[in-house]
Amino acid sequence: MKTKKKAQKKNKQNILKLIAPLIIAIIGGIGATVVITTNQGKIELKIDYSTDTTIQGDEGEYVEEIPTVENIDGGGLFQDNLNIKDGESALYYELGSIESVDTSSPEAFKNSTLGRCIIADNYFGAQCVSLARAFWWSYAGYDVSTCGTGLAKGMMNCYSENARDKFHTIWNTDEIQEGTWIVLDGDRTGHICMALDSVNNGYVTCLGENQGGIPCEYGVGGSGTNIINISVKNFIGGYTPLDYIHVEPTPIAPDTGLIR
Length: 260
Prior knowledge:
This protein is of the alpha+beta class. It has one domain (about 20-245). About 25% of the residues lie in helices and about 25% in strands. It has helices at about 1-25, 90-100, 105-115, 130-140, 160-165; strands spanning about 30-40, 40-55, 65-75, 165-170, 180-185, 190-195, 205-210, 225-230, 235-240.
């Protein structure tokens, strides 16, 4: 009987975790500040939700409600390899590479990370840059950098280091496509997430971590990977994996049989 009650209690807690982001989104127009307790203390993440939500479907198979967000800012600092002191654990360096993610396509990456807490930082838990770090390691084979700032928005400060020969760096929102990692400005840390489509009426559907998803367990901080629609008004720049860029083939003139 006690086991059954415990199971029912846990199910209720899981349901509350699932609907919490939607409840916040329904409030609409209110800046929700989430206080997260981590092994480095308490940090704040500010999410400005919009009053609008977008209904998306996949060929009529399902309908999913996605929160619409105007801005995301805050969360903890990201631990760059550049800032690791002598004698500090090399785990910071390794965490991104040991995360199992599928980067064969944007869809595959979404399916392999949605709902997960990617702890590829070991500093403030599941941060937005942590998800990017796991992607960079799996796709490009090297680590992502916030250029020593510890801030998501700092990622464009050394774009050549982050892009190398694996990404196409973009600076205009009309270049955003499925699979582009977009970097957004903010008063504090800014934000980074992967676009799942092109920009539509000033917003883009984005896959990201620590952007209002289910809080991570065990007090590690941050929240699991989820999908939101976010405004691109604070867009700084971005990185599109070269393997995701679709080049239209050059049309070939039909063979008329004539000798030219």
